[in-house]
Amino acid sequence: MIKPKKLFKSLAEPSLKIIDASWHLDTSISAEADFKAEHLPNAAFFDLDAVSDQSSSLPHMLPTSTAFQTAVEKLGISRDDKIVVYDSTGLFSAPRVWWTFRVMGAHQVQILDGGLPAWRQAGLPLESGPSRISAGGHFETEFDESRVISCSELQEAVENETAIILDARPANRFFGRAPEPRPSLKSGHICGSKSLPASQLITDGFMKSADELDKLFAEHAVTPDTDVIVSCGSGVTAAILALGLAITGHKRTRLYDGSWAEWGQLPDTFICQ
Q1: Catalytic residue at 151?
Q2: pTM exceeds 0.85
Q3: Among 102, 124, 142, 266, which one is most buried in terms of CB atoms within 10 A?
Q4: Among the options 151, 191, 232, 272, which is catalytic?
């Protein structure tokens, strides 16, 4: 995580690349239109839905390495750049894009603490209009399989109880007391998983401190040696849990990319309430 004023002091660095990763579950809100109205200086817009696996019926699944490379090079991003990701909410979709870059091999990726609201609150300059960034990056992907888990691998982990599974959705959706926003899906949760809403990791758009996160994860029996799988509705807020675990130094975290959008279509034997 990087604070707004520290990022502002680094704006002139040639290797610094800033990405607006805003995305909204409410499809009536255009994150790209919001970007054109207001964004950080020299930022590029990362379209989470467009830079995804277009062959999948599931929403914004990880793109192929080739598709990702093509997309980010058009944004002028190279793998060795210092990449800072933010979103317009504070902390919502930025961790998903942070995680995607990490999966694809980027090592210098941070998130702007508090996002656009914190930048604005600090009185720092903003720009409007389309991105002025031109193509020219060189991003040779190196896919990190240790950060991802497939549906079949998760089924095996559930059956053998080999990992702690944390669900980032709101508790009412986890327990089946509230309907899913995607009407074709069943209600409930992955059998054996634990509810840890992503909102519990955040205070006023900022990620909680490492000590607070450690305590929160410990309450769910997570230790440094625990294999952890994170899931949510469609792989976005699960990345907030992955980020929190990374901040605390946890190195054995995998994100279930399909999340409930995929699991909620499985037979009832895999779903609990």
Answers
A1: no
A2: yes
A3: 102
A4: 232
